[in-house]
Amino acid sequence: MYKNLAATLVAACFFSPAFSQTMPAKGSTAEPVRAGFVYVSPITEAGWTRQHDEGRNAVEAALGNQVKTTFVENVAEGADAERVIRDLAATGHQIIFTPSFGYMEPTLKVAQDYPHVKFESITGYKTTPNVAAANARYYEGRYLAGIAAGRMSKTGVAGFVAGFPIPEVLQGINAFTLGMRSVNPQAAVKVVWLNVWFDPPKERDAAMALFNQDVDVIAFHTGSTAVMAAAQERGKMAVAYHSDMRRTGPDAQIVAVTHQWGSYYTERVRAVQNGTWKSAKLWGGVREGMIRVGDFGTRVPAAVQQEVLAAQKAIGAGKLQPFRAGKAPVRDNEGQDRIAAGRALTDAQILQMSWLVEGVVGKLSR
Question: H helices of 200-353, where?
């Protein structure tokens, strides 16, 4: 998240923005809160934008005619984003959600001119009195998925198709590897860097190349369902990301790491409604209900499912931390100690992660 990228978990797509809004129910007497959402890609069947739109739908389900939502999809980061965010602010929206790292600066710029509008910068990290920031601990789900992959893999070799080597992605690769090695200490994870977030043909080619290198289970940090589709085609296993992707890979998917935004979005809209909204920073995970692992495939034994769910419960209770070393230190894949025995990384260290853990086959893409 801390690299100057013009992308988030889904690459910026240069389409013409399209507005859609949901009207308040008939018979409403009170003025509804007007909430705007800006999306970096189309609303597809699965993926980053789908999860945020599910969050918007959850707001409507919870608040009914007390809210009126507007969404704008296919908005490229940069000047287009600023124009759309400004238009939402100018047309009476009281709270605007901007779920894309590349929307952070445009959001801050517009917020200066509309001090009475509340803004939620999702995956951003800068705040002001009327701009809050929120993100999720995706790495917690990655660790849990690693447990499932470690139990299911016959070769002990997993693949990982990755976008850019930013801390958020490195956290995911490392946590996934640590999860695998917690049940199979000899497991290895082979990484392919794409240096792009959203390029389905390129994602597919990377997956196919990994499947030719003893990889029988694969994870990814890219924006489409192409890796899942490739796993389905080759008869391999895959971990879904962002959304449940069993429609794409009914036989391939072993588990999904999903992001749940509905409760947070509802809470923030309700705070505007009752006048209690305050700027804040949130980095929530399993405990806060923002990350969930489940949607197991039919090939996953009940015992493995139960093991993963038990670990998920332990993370939620604070009893299990993916980046805590046991009796031995955690080393990177160049042999340097990174986490001392019996110690855990601080949030600041996790947020600045710039190394690959032992067991990862590959180097950082520069």
Answer: 200-211, 226-234, 262-274, 302-316, 347-351
**Contact indicator for 132, 264 with CB cutoff of 8 Å:** no
The residue-averaged pLDDT of 66-92 equals 95
Strand partners, 33: 67
End-to-end CA distance of the chain: 15
Closest CA to 73 of 90, 59, 94, 52: 52
Q: How far apart are CA 219 and CA 160, in angstroms?
A: 5
What number of CA atoms fall less than 13 Å from residue 323's CA on the CB side? 28
Count of alpha carbons within 13 Å of 229, Cβ hemisphere only? 12
In the chain the domains, ranked by start, together with CATH numbers, are 18-136+261-284 (3.40.50.2300), 139-251+291-361 (3.40.50.2300)
Q: Over the Cα atoms of the chain, what is R_g?
A: 20
pLDDT digit string, tens, across residues 306-349: 999 999 999 999 999 999 999 999 999 999 999 999 999 999 99
CA 66 to chain centre: 29
Q: To 10 degrees, what angle do helices 226-234 and 200-211 make?
A: 40
What is the sign, positive or negative, of the torsion defined by CA atoms of 229, 180, 282, 271? positive
pTM equals: 0.83
Q: From the centroid of its chain, how far is CA 187?
A: 24
CA distances to 162, 243, 246, 301, 362 from 333, rounded to whole Å, are 17, 30, 33, 31, 8
- Which phi and psi (to 5°) does residue 242 adopt? 75, -60
Taking the C-alpha atoms of residue 247 and residue 258, their distance in angstroms, rounded to an integer, is 15
